[in-house]
User: What shape does this take?
Amino acid sequence: MFDYSAGCGRGEIVCASRGSGLPEPALAVLRHRFPDAADPVPEWLPPRPDWKTGLQGLDVLGRELSRVRHTPGSKIVLYGHDDMDGITGLFVGLRVLRGEGFTVLPIVPNRATENYGLIQERMDGLLARGDLLLTVDCGCSSVEGVNWAISNGATVVITDHHTLNPPLPAATVLIDPQATGFPGTVLSGCGVLYACLIELFPDWEDDPQLLAAVALGTISDRVPLLAWNRHLLDRFRSIDMSRLTEGLRHILEVWPNRTGDWSAASVRQQITSVVGKGYNSGIHRILDFMFCDHRELCLEQWRDMLDWSETRAQLLSELLTRAMQMKDPEADAFGMILVYLDDVPPGMGGTLASKLSRIYRRGSIVVTTRPDETLVGEARSVGDWDMAHFLVSLRQVFTSAGGHVRAAGFSTEGMSWPQLRDLLISHMAGFPTRPVPEPHVDLECEALPPASDLACLAPFGPDFPPPAVKVGIMRYLLQINNSGASWCISEESGE
Assistant: This one.
């Protein structure tokens, strides 16, 4: 037997949140990860959050919804974002608000041809005087779009989770946990809207369809799997499958090890990447898919998305090879990956940037040109590089820019690639580069504990990677797949 109180061992404590025992090696990992906590278990898996503490402005949203309810002819225009976080957020908003008797019209933008933010052309003819424009996963940088909506007699409530950078839009209220700080800042866009709506309409809190949608959006958006997100994902584990639509039921059927131990990366590989984004993806039909109650139709559509995902994977492999050959050497010197490719299909720039970040373990920016000559960039980061801050601090030269720490994007008109490249390189020179931390080690042991003793801490993902154990000079990282948990020798720090 090892002395686990010194860092590794066997044993058991009671985990009230799950009502089950937590092995001592898992508790030792939690002590290491939450060193300032008297009890690390509720830090790892917190009780029900007080959503109001991280979401200021809920009373204003409630007042505006009441106004719409009691104003004949008024409706809600729900403006989303065309990624899995935004689409699942639209699902949450439509299900709750239509279920409460509101007339709700969704807007799903197309980033292949449109800039980031609230686009006037998408709202014109749809948003009328007296309506409520409610956003999900977007809006906090949309100064012009909000001004247009207000000038046309609508009120605007923004729910978002992206980085706040002045000037902020003149919305009636902007509900964004970035304004109040941790723990709310871990939430995805769909998580923010879910929390807002269940505070106002508490009967929806335990709705299995909402919990399934929020789990998918949270995992797909690569937000930290900490604090309030872990509460949501833990509730997702035990939802009643019989109360799901056929579309959501199928998503959960292909969810890897959903009721056991799983990682965010495996979900994105088997679900998010199948839906895809941009080029021949299913992102613009996944909303209808989640609402669909016709099983054969759902299965047919999923098979079609699978076929297209294989085509995208081949194309992405070819793009990745080219990008690795063409990365800018001067950006390398500043700790960044910068690549320009003239033929990246719409929606694939972000996926390409993600892969480059994981390969080189640094921030990556992929730039391409739309058919209308607009330069668009997708950026991803790992570690402590704040990608949104880097890009949004250049907002004065971009047509639009926005995002969060690990994922951001921009577009710019009237600028050539050499001009943009010089601007980005110059900005890198003055921006504080913070390298990715060294591969983490949670425990140092004489021998490896059973992998299953640590797999119970799943799900693993951003900011909560799989446990790493050092035995002698070797470092082992917990690995989870369909056959269970095991150890692998690795210098990677995990997701």
Summary: The CA atoms of residues 384 and 435 lie 7 Å apart. The chain has four domains: 4-45+438-489, 51-239, 245-305, 327-417. Residues 327-417 form a domain with the Diaminopimelate Epimerase; Chain A, domain 1 fold (CATH 3.10.310.30).
